[in-house]
C-alpha cells in the first residue's frame, strides 16, 4: 500500500532524509520513531505530496506521489502534528467542507458515525476556536477518515488526547487496518504504540537504523534481551553501538 524507495530530501543542500526505503502492506500499522530531527515529519509530508523528494520514489496505493499527485491524494489522509482548523467554522461545517473537497456523496450519515465514534456528540455546532486541543485533534481525525482513505499518515496524532481519546483513536485505526487500510504513525510516546503497531521504523539523522516487526528489531540488536521493550530497542538502536552509524537501507 505504501512503497518508499531510496527517498532523499535536502533543504539548502543539507540532507534531512537520505536513501530511505521501506514498505507498508495493506492492513499494517507502521510506527515511525526517532529522535528530534530524524526526518519523520519530512518523510510523512513527502508521502502526502506536500514536499517534493530530492531523489527517490514514493508510492501510495499504487500511485506515484509525484507523477500522479491527485490520484495518490484521493487515496490518503494526512494528519499533521498540530491540528489546523478554521476558527469560524463549526465541527459539522468542517466535516461538510472535507466531504465537498473529496467529493463524498451522502456524507452526512458517515459524518454522524464519526462524530459518535470520536465522542464529539453535542459538539457539532461548536466553533473550532472554542475547542480544546484534544477536541480539535478529534475533529481533524474525523475529517481525515470521512472519505475512507486507504492510507493514513499520522504525525504525532496523540497530541492533546487524554487516555480515553487515545483508546478511541487506537480502536478506530485498528478497525480500519482490519478492513485493509494501512497507516504510518509518528510519535515520541513509545510506550503507547507497542501494542498498536505491527511494524516499526527507527530513524536517526535521516537514515534508517532498524525496520521490521518487534521480533525483527530484537534480532537485529543482539545485545538486547529477548523480551526487550520498544523503548529499550529504541535507545539501543539510536544510542548504542548500532546507533552510532546506523544500518544502510537494503
Q: What order do the helices and strands come in, and which of them pair?
A:
Elements: E1 2-11, E2 14-24, E3 29-33, H1 40-47, E4 55-60, E5 63-64, H2 69-75, E6 76-79, H3 91-102, H4 108-117, H5 133-145, E7 151-155, H6 163-178, E8 182-186, H7 190-193, E9 199-204, E10 207-212, H8 214-220, H9 230-239, H10 241-245
Parallel strand pairs: 3-8, 3-9, 6-7, 7-8
Antiparallel strand pairs: 1-2, 1-4, 4-5, 9-10
Helix pairs in contact: 3-5
How large is the share of residues in beta strands?
Answer: 15-25%
Mean model confidence by pLDDT: 92
Helix content: 25-40%
CATH superfamily: P-loop containing nucleotide triphosphate hydrolases
Structural class: alpha/beta
Oligomer: single chain
User: Strand order, biggest sheet?
Assistant: 6-7-8-3-9-10
Largest sheet at a glance? 6 strands, mixed
Under the CATH scheme, which architecture would be assigned? 3-Layer(aba) Sandwich
Helix count, DSSP H or I runs of 4 or more residues = 10
Q: What top-tier CATH class fits best? A: Alpha Beta
Count of strand segments:
10
As residue ranges, the low-confidence spans are 241-250
Q: SSE order in H/E notation? A: EEEHEEHEHHHEHEHEEHHH
Tell me what the structure shows:
By secondary structure, this protein is α/β, with parallel strands linked by helices. The chain has a single domain (2-82, 149-245), classed as Rossmann fold (3-Layer(aba) Sandwich), CATH 3.40.50.300. It is built from ten helices and ten strands. The strands form two sheets. The chain has a six-stranded mixed sheet, sandwiched between helices. Strands 2-1-4-5 form a four-stranded antiparallel sheet, with helices on one face. The model is unreliable at 241-250 (pLDDT under 50).
Amino acid at each position: 500500500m505504501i512503497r518508499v524507495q531510496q527517498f532523499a530530501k535536502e533543504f539548502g543542500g543539507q540532507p534531512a532524509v537520505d536513501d530511505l526505503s521501506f514498505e507498508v502492506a495493506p492492513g499494517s500499522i507502521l510506527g515511525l520513531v526517532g529522535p528530534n530531527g530524524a526526518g519523520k515529519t519530512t518523510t510523512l509530508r513527502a508521502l502526502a505530496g506536500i514536499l517534493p523528494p530530492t531523489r527517490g520514489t514514493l508510492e501510495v496505493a499504487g500511485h506515484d506521489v509525484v507523477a500522479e499527485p491527485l490520484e495518490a491524494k484521493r487515496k490518503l489522509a494526512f494528519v499533521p502534528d498540530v491540528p489546523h482548523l478554521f476558527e469560524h467554522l463549526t465541527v459539522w461545517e468542517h466535516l461538510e467542507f472535507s466531504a465537498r473537497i473529496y467529493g463524498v456523496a451522502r456524507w452526512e450519515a458517515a459524518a454522524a458515525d464519526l462524530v459518535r465514534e470520536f465522542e464529539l456528540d453535542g459538539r457539532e455546532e461548536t466553533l473550532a476556536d472554542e475547542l480544546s486541543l484534544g477536541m480539535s485533534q478529534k475533529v481533524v481525525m474525523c475529517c481525515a477518515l470521512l472519505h475512507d482513505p486507504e492510507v493514513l499518515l499520522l504525525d504525532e496524532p496523540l497530541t492533546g488526547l487524554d487516555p480515553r481519546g487515545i483508546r478511541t483513536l487506537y480502536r478506530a485505526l485498528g478497525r480500519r487496518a482490519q478492513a485493509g487500510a494501512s497507516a504510518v504513525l509518528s510519535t515520541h510516546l513509545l510506550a503507547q504504540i507497542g501494542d498498536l503497531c505491527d511494524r516499526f521504523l527507527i530513524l536517526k539523522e535521516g537514515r534508517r537504523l532498524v525496520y521490521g516487526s518487534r521480533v525483527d528489531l530484537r534480532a537485529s540488536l543482539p545485545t538486547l534481551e529477548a523480551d526487550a521493550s520498544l523503548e529499550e530497542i529504541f535507545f539501543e538502536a539510536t544510542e548504542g553501538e548500532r546507533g552510532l552509524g546506523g544500518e544502510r537501507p537494503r
